[in-house]
Amino acid sequence: MSRLFSHCGAALVLAACAATCLSTPLIAQWLKHPTAGVPRTANGKVDVSAPTPRTADGKPDFSGIWITGNPICATSTEDTLVCGVELPMSKEGINMGAGVPGGLPYQPWLADVVKTRTADQAKDDPHVRCLPDTFLRAYGLPHLLKFVQTPALLVMLNEMNAGYRQVFLDGRPLPDDPVPSWQGYSSATWSGDTLVVNTIGFRNDLWIDWNGSVLTEAAKVQERIRRPDYGHLEVEVSVDDPKAYTKPWKVTLKQRLVVDTELVDEICLENEQSSKRMK
């Protein structure tokens, strides 16, 4: 798998994505096996505005396969390829602060780091080096995420490098002295139809976009996840990381449902060639 994005503009980024970032195109995944129980319109297309599915206990069911619903280049229909690419990337995938007035509130040291990483076209990006992506970044990347929900646990499976994340739904206390990890430690409770997820315990210097913005070990992240209808998720993310940012900040990362397909291994180190050319 190879990946090399330029930060010179959206058009160049999309061209690079179309050419290099999709090691497993959507059309190759499970031969378009139909997803059971999907509401459809009279013409057979997914009825994305159908009611939110619910679990046996009445909670919104987030189960399904998801991809960014806020792509760099938007279309007017759900089933049309986005800028000719089956798996689109979000603007937050390039710059997490794209929708934040004034951009992310970097501490001075991080502002300098991001400037250098952007100028270097992310040559030191852990994603390029085939290391895991933390969930905040995964929401904006062109890789499928599968959510599996039970009454006690929400599991997020990332087809990129067969990654996983666990969100415990029992509201358990977060650990006092967590071993730093790529996904952190996540505990959630319901507030009406919104799942409120609190996460701590990150590794230091976790990239969250191509520009090189980061989470540090001091970060506290809260997600407020909603499924307003059948075909969409809204993930309102609040980040409080005083080591990296001068104040807390917030973004909303949208996801759209992908049906009639399945996850397929996308292992970065299998015939990986990009890092050899990134000097």
Task: From the structure above, extract its key features.
279 residues; alpha+beta; 9-stranded mixed barrel; two-stranded antiparallel ribbon; 5 helices; 13% helix; globular; disordered N terminus
Question: In summary, what is this structure?
Answer:
With 279 residues, the protein is α+β, with helices and mostly antiparallel strands.
Structure description:
The protein is an alpha+beta fold. It has one domain (10-277). Helices cover 13% and strands 25% of the residues. It has helices at residues 10-21, 91-94, 108-119, 135-138, 274-277; strands at 64-68, 145-149, 153-158, 163-168, 185-191, 194-200, 206-207, 214-215, 220-229, 232-240, 249-258. The strands form two sheets. The chain has a nine-stranded mixed β-barrel. A two-stranded antiparallel sheet has the order 7-8. The protein is globular, with a radius of gyration of 18 Å. Residues 1-29 and 75-82 have low confidence and may be disordered.
